[in-house]
């Protein structure tokens, strides 16, 4: 009898979820002498068991399933090891969440490392260390199964990144829906004090969900841009693969244990600091805080190594004749984003590590009682966490510049300026971080320089806007779904952009700092700079990856449902923000009169969710049932569209040479690339 | 093929750079215990780091990479790519240490933890000497002398291990009785309480910085062990990049210590 793998997967998910829940409940009963039906331990076991079992049902015991099994076993082995040592040392062996905090942290770390061994992404390196040579490339499994194991093909990894990002966006969005529903009306409706879930009361759960919404979305965006960059960059520059295919796979697979750790932080007592994790609050939040730190740390390494690979690939793997100013704009922006990823990411890792060690070993970095300085944390943290927004938006802005000429049938206006503006944004963006700290009590003389440097970011960003508008001017504009999203992102990002400078003004910032205004501004920039271009890229390159198109009608429904709801949502946020709605809080005073506005915001949030659902159905349905499209669907000049879709492994059978400018659409006789004649110089 | 004269030149260049580094290290120690000028210490550290980066880590090899026109599957081209990747990684790693340095300057300013200066100088010299032998081993391999490579790599490994034990066992007081005995040898005055992670920001900064550095030393030792074992089997007689990578990484650890040593032992006044 033939089983549907997906049905198997869900059956296993439920069955092992129940088994894990029971096991957790039993162990908790054994240690604490009491049943905690909605407690952290049972939930943690259920989570770990069910996720691993899901992939077992889908795929069998290999690849990702093996990795997750190793992670679960490694986590408990590590935790038990520390517990044993603590017992021998006469310290308290067990704590509120079964293991003590050091045991959970060590276990989490061991689990993450064990995952990498389990999934098999380090096995080639281990062989090299023992002096055994491995083949340069590995053959992938046919069909969908290759996505669940280690593949070295940059296109497979790009798709793995993208789908993982879509999954995480859904999870983060779900969290947002939960707390948005609570906010629809003043007073507490369902996240009440009486609620007990994962050892958290309703308002505590609100804090955890709100915090995790932030970080899960950030990780999903990092995975999303990694997806675009991995998939597109080698194809655009004519490379067979990334510079370091194994490192590429390693970077992707790091993100999976990181996601598990982030989800663990929800069930292990949660945390209430927001995604920023400022001490001193983060120095005394529950264990969930540590899992959060650990998860971000591992995800950060994924991002660092991914960025390293993109830089090395761009530097070393370009086709003949692809001089710097003939690179596609997307590659320029990917390069700029990767430089930030490579360098600044270390600082968030460090700042979170310092809090972890402060908690574990009573070190006094941010503890004023020991001479520590909490503001130091904020400097280290924002040194990454501000530039990272340019990591989010730069590839997106690159996608806009990349697609706009295709659909306006006109050369990109001011190519060199646009190319260099990405590096300009990355450079200026690295010296603006303290504008997040105007209200923090840092040294006052720092305020004005950081105000001006922040305003300066508007200049290279403005260059991009001028280029887009001038490219559209007089063009023969076509509006299939990808172009709709490109135009949408220009509009939305403009709103995000113009609401930025007011925040940069010290005088205004002190009043706007903790309000919904900032939330509205931020979501405008990220939707305009990442979400809309991301969807544009997915609709655009979908035929390249699958040989089929996504449904145009449902694509347009997605766009026309999401865009107005989103604009109402963020304008509404800014509107009530200016009137004094504070951010990050579970409840607000009915006398403030925000009830109607909040209800509208919640309705908009659900409309966005419906549009994303439409997208997801369209996306997964079109893989099998979409209209066949193997040719140059968008009449693009870009090299990847000059060969039939889907792209074969190792990309171009015949290498090409760059002979002209990339975006000379509509100019008679202009040529960008030329394939070597008669397969001369064929690579294999 | 490299002629004999060139072989000798490469080796003596290593010796000359080592002598310069040793003199500079002694100079900074003497400056610290006499007139303690911050400017001199910073300049000396920068000069030392520059010497290591240029001569021991041969940073200029990045410019000698075969260009994109070369066959992408050739060993020379792949070595160039690997080299770029390694230096990008080191750049990234430098931000960790830069962040730690910023943390130390913010929390401690112009004060420093009260540590045994003789021991500090000793472990610094041990690491410096190990860097010298690493360079010598790499040069020997380059010159086609496998036995010399193995011998010098082994010495590097032993010195690296000595540094690690010096920091973790003695400075960290991992085994208090051993630590006290050794510290006594280094002229430790009686009754000084050992630094602990929980003893104020000085302890926190000291343990975090040396800990992060020691972790890198540990990984460096693992790489050294790998290239020694594989080198013994003649794996690197032709394809030498793994040895270059391990050597560059080892020298990078030394560069970090070139800055951490004055930051922890020399600048400012002890508290």
Question: What does the model show?
Answer:
The complex is a heterodimer of chains A (684) and B (271). Chain A is mostly helical and 684 residues long. Chain A contains 21 helices and six strands. Chain A has helices spanning 5-32, 40-59, 63-88, 101-119, 123-129, 154-183, 202-237, 245-267, 288-316, 329-361, 374-385, 387-408, 415-429, 447-456, 458-472, 481-498, 500-504, 506-512, 516-546, 552-578, 595-625, and strands at 94-95, 98-99, 548-549, 627-628, 656-658, 673-675. In chain A, strands 1-2 form a two-stranded antiparallel sheet. In chain A, strand 1 (94-95) and strand 2 (98-99) form a beta hairpin. With 271 residues, chain B is an all-alpha fold. Chain B has one domain: Cytochrome c oxidase, subunit III, four-helix bundle (Four Helix Bundle (Hemerythrin (Met), subunit A), Up-down Bundle). Helices cover 75% and strands 1% of the residues of chain B. Chain B has eight helices and two strands; from the N terminus they run H-H-H-E-H-H-H-H-H-E. In chain B, helix 1 (4-33) runs antiparallel to helix 2, helix 3 (75-108) packs parallel to helix 8 and helix 7 packs antiparallel against helix 8 (241-266). The chains are: A mainly alpha (684), B mainly alpha (271). At the A-B interface, helix 9, helix 10 and helix 11 of A face helix 3 and helix 7 of B.
